[in-house]
Amino acid sequence: MLTYIAQGLVQGLSEFLPVSSSGHLALMQHFFNFEDPDANLLTTVALHFGTLLAVLYYFRADILPYFTPSGWKNPDRRKIAMLVVAGSVPTALIGLGFKKHFESLFANPSAVCIALFITGLLLLICEKLKKQDNQQNLESISWWKAVSIGLVQGLAVTPGISRSGSTIATGLLLGIKGEDATRFSFLLMIPAVGGATLLKVKDLFETGLPESIEPAGLAAGTLVSVITGFLALKLLVYMVKQQKLSYFAYYLFCVSTISLILIQFAGK
Predict the structure, then answer these.
(1) 81-133 tens-digit pLDDT
(2) Which positions ≥6 away from 175 have C-beta within 8 Å?
(3) Which residues pair with 197 in a beta bridge?
């Protein structure tokens, strides 16, 4: 059970904080020969579902109106829905067309370190250069900005490039208010993660349920991913409001630099 809880904890924290869960996983596998959690497809599906529930609950005020007839009568809500659709198109095209090419970088820890460093640079640059004047609300952003953020989200399938960090940073650089950039980032995440989870469910039906699964442990891990994911979301929103994304940048600089030195020193 402890293994499931540990995986749920890591999933909930790293899925939302702008530090790249995939990048950390790749380096952990390289240095410690950790087993890839993706090897257990059911666990992967359950934990991703848990973090998806955390997003849905956190942004319930944005989502629930769409399930009422009156919700669609609001022009702002209709526009936000269409912006999410527009941003999801490039994400889907990149994810379906190039996912295997990007994920091949898992086997190249040096490339992962560089990607982590790039994520840190992006967070630092966006905090220094983001537009201070005429910052836009989500309801007023243009279509090309939504597509641009969706394009960045698609590229974030690269191990070491944080999905949340890159999309929020892009939104800030495009002149969107911090809270609204974060809001759009995670609204855009819902169809992306939901679609990816459904594809994994399809694979699960094809491969069958693993015999070694522990139902109680899996349930505990999923619950932990929901709770830690919700808390990580609150922390990220707070850090964006306080303009402290650079804290995560410095962390990524340290991790990437130290890891790259170790890789070169060990000759791996």
Answers:
(1) 999 999 999 999 998 887 677 767 778 899 999 999 999 999 999 888 876 65
(2) 130, 131, 134, 135, 136
(3) none
Q: Which residues of 75-103 are buried (b: 16+ CB within 10 A; e: fewer)?
A: eebebbeebbebbbebbbebbeeeeeebe
> What letters, b where the CB count within 10 A reaches 16 and e where it falls short, cover 229-257?
bbebbeebbebbeeeebbebbebbbebbe
Distance from C-alpha of 131 to C-alpha of 127, rounded to nearest angstrom:
9
Q: Report the Cα–Cα distance between both ends of the chain, in Å, rounded.
A: 33
Calculate ∠ Cα 44-202-25, nearest 5°. Answer: 25
Q: 3-class SS at 51? A: helix
**How far, in Å, CA of 4 to CA of 18, rounded?**
23
Domain ranges of the chain: 2-266
Question: Per-residue pLDDT tens for 31-47?
Answer: 877 554 444 667 778 88
Cβ atoms of 244 and 26 within 8 Å: the answer is no
